[in-house]
Fold this protein.
Amino acid sequence: MATKPGKITVVGSGFYGSTTALRLAQYDVVGTVVLTDILEGRPEGLALDINQSRSIEGFETEVVGVGGGSYEGTEGSDVVVVTAGLPRKPGMSRMDLIETNAGIVREVAENVARTSPDAVVIVVSNPLDEMTALAQLATGFPTQRVMGQAGMLDTARFTDNVARELGVPTASVRTLTLGSHGDTMVPVPSRCTVDGKPLADVMDADRIAHLVDRTRNGGAEVVALLKTGSAYYAPSAAAARMAKAVIEDAGAVMPVCAWVDGEYGISGVYLGVEAEIGREGVRRVVEGDLTDDELAGLREAAEAVRAKQADVADL
Ligand SMILES: NC(=O)c1ccc[n+]([C@@H]2O[C@H](COP(=O)([O-])OP(=O)(O)OC[C@H]3O[C@@H](n4cnc5c(N)ncnc54)[C@H](O)[C@@H]3O)[C@@H](O)[C@H]2O)c1
């Protein structure tokens, strides 16, 4: 029996989905987290396991597992996090997943539209920008109610890289990445600081370029080490924080994949930008100050993902 209102559904109970469900349950901000999958038993078993940790960790959110591809019990969700889809294997690019994951994401999105027509949808399946665009098309939801998770993760990776390079606490480092999740990720050095000082004052340009490169390849670095599956601890932290911001109507400004409609002189594309997140999803895209180079990089990223997103309607 749920102790508070609110329901979040996490579709896909693989590594990303199960860790997202655990984090959301531990936040204790909704009565119910529903974890689903096409597999029978896995979501039910994970839900039971997470619920049994409640008295130790001190949270009351109940996790409900729903297997066999069913959407029973997900109805009327406030937020749906879509993690269903294959992850990368070593040597694969995110784009190698597009055909398989498009079929999965389309089917999931149609079911979400049917069962939770008022939900805010957070997509994480890869390739991220394209799957977010596809989920919006397939749900038919307003663009502000469909967003993707990538920028929170890329920014967190950049922050960790800078903190470890300088040997300083992560809390003293602020970084930002915009653009797309992948080759056209746009780091924003002008918005990066260490203890309030510009990053460029505490690190030479070559080191910054090296860390940017490492950030851009952060997902592949983990995939190569794991050998099977892709990262999920940092990714699930990012998606869960986005879902929490929606539930709490927080107005938090986060780097997310959002529909851009005129900001930065860019229109009609899902792109990594900073956005204010609230109960209605993306309240607004927040246009920050960028240098001419950064703005040019963002516009280039927009054109690169625009072409790929135009094709998703046929997938
Ligand atoms: N956006 C990001 O920053 C980011 C980061 C890491 C991973 N990812 C992506 O997240 C996705 C999931 O990764 P993972 O590590 O959890 O993979 P995983 O293989 O561990 O789990 C995927 C789960 O989806 C389920 N599934 C497949 N089709 C389904 C359907 N139609 N309905 C419901 N469930 C379905 C599978 O049975 C499986 O349990 C991958 O596409 C991966 O590339 C994105």
Residues 292-311 form the longest helix (20 residues). The domain at 7-148 is CATH 3.40.50.720 (Rossmann fold).
